[in-house]
Amino acid sequence: MRRALWFALLVNGAMFGVEILAGLQAASLSLWADAIDFLGDTLSYAMTLAVLGAGLAARLRVARIKALMMGGLGVAVLAQALWRLGAGAVPDAPVMGAVGLAALLANLGVAWVLYRYREGDANLQSVWLCSRNDAIGNLAVLAAAAGVFGTGTAWPDLLVSALMAGLGLQAAVAVWRRTAQEQAQEPSHAH
């Protein structure tokens, strides 16, 4: 498990750097949202590594922090999408497409490595959900790039950003609920 998490951490950290620069260059909110998600995932993997083998109380605390991070990132992206509604800047579709494809390949590799841990405790579930959401988000970025290219407007980019934010919020709620279930199942160990 530790090796898989280190792999995921390194891939996500590298892709954060690539996407934040590409998102800024291409003026793409969906790339920016995906870059922020890569950063959140990098931090999530680091926290999971830190509590691997720790007691239930520590693992639940970290899972709750990760749920709050995923939810916070989702809210930040939604706010940015609403703020950009009035802006007429059209993102660079070819850059969006190329970087979205690279990110998809990176996330499919991470998801493949982490697939076996998808039914684990709240921390392991959050790791899997991050990877799954990332691959879905990358497909959405590719769709946004095609939409921006086809329409010549920023609407597809903004729509995909809002959908990605919704995925982050949904994952945050799922992880938070899982922590509550785990705490309820073992109350004597969680205090």
What do these coordinates show?
- This is Co/Zn/Cd efflux system component.
- Keywords: Membrane, Transmembrane, Transmembrane helix.
- With 191 residues, the chain is mostly helical.
- It has one domain (2-185): Cation efflux protein transmembrane domain (Alpha-lytic protease prodomain-like, Up-down Bundle).
- 86% of the residues lie in helices and 0% in strands.
- It contains 7 helices and no strands.
- It starts with a helix and ends with a helix.
How is the topology of this model organized?
Layout: H1 2-26, H2 29-51, H3 56-84, H4 93-114, H5 122-151, H6 155-185, H7 187-190
Helix pairs in contact: 1-2, 1-4, 2-3, 2-5, 2-6, 3-6, 4-5, 5-6
Short key terms for the protein model shown above:
single chain, 191 residues, mainly alpha, Alpha-lytic protease prodomain-like, 86% helix, Co/Zn/Cd efflux system component, monoatomic cation transmembrane transporter activity
Structural class by sheet pairing and helices: mainly alpha
Tell me what portion of residues adopts beta-strand conformation. Answer: under 5%
Largest sheet: none
Shape: elongated
Segments where pLDDT lies below 50 for 5+ residues? none
Mean pLDDT over the residues: 84
As for the number of domains, it is 1
- Name the CATH superfamily classification: Cation efflux protein transmembrane domain
The percentage helix is over 70%
Provide the CATH architecture: Up-down Bundle
CATH fold annotation: Alpha-lytic protease prodomain-like
Tally of alpha and pi helices:
7
Q: Helices and strands, in N-to-C order?
A: HHHHHHH
Q: Please write the CATH class name.
A: Mainly Alpha
Protein name: Co/Zn/Cd efflux system component
Subcellular location: Membrane
Organism: Inhella inkyongensis
Keywords: Membrane, Transmembrane, Transmembrane helix
